[in-house]
Amino acid sequence: MAGSVASPSVGNPVSTPRRAPRSRRLLSVLGMLAAAALLSGVLTSCETTDGDRAAVIDAVNASRAQAGLGALSQNATLNAKADAWAARLRDECNIFHSNLSDGAPPEWRKLGENVGRGGSIDQVHVAYLNSAGHRANIMDPSYNQMGAGAVWGTCNGYRTVFTVQVFMRA
Known about the structure:
About 45% of the residues lie in helices and about 20% in strands. The chain is of the alpha+beta class.
């Protein structure tokens, strides 16, 4: 069963492993720390800058505030999903939706996604607000968390930002 811890059976002796010499333990710990640092760089690397992510989330929350709705809290897992999807859209110079549940936190109860591209983050946000379906995601009062990605690239000869907003009710 996932998340459970197995206990040794009664009557089966459990032996305590001998400790490695201190120098080997230290090298082992240092090796694990180096591997963790390398993995964390791989797992948390993103193309969206903090400023661009904040611009996307701030625009959503400002629009919600104008409508009398509460702000959405930022979710790191949704940020990673949105960032990866925005990078894919940029790489393919196209926009289309992801498989929404892929990469979403396990506690999700409802998900929504906006994908778009344009010359600036503000320009894309205005386009979202002018589209009934995208606006509905931004203004949905049941959402309480979001993640965002904003990845820049050149598409058809123009500097373009691809934004992805992933909304969640936990």
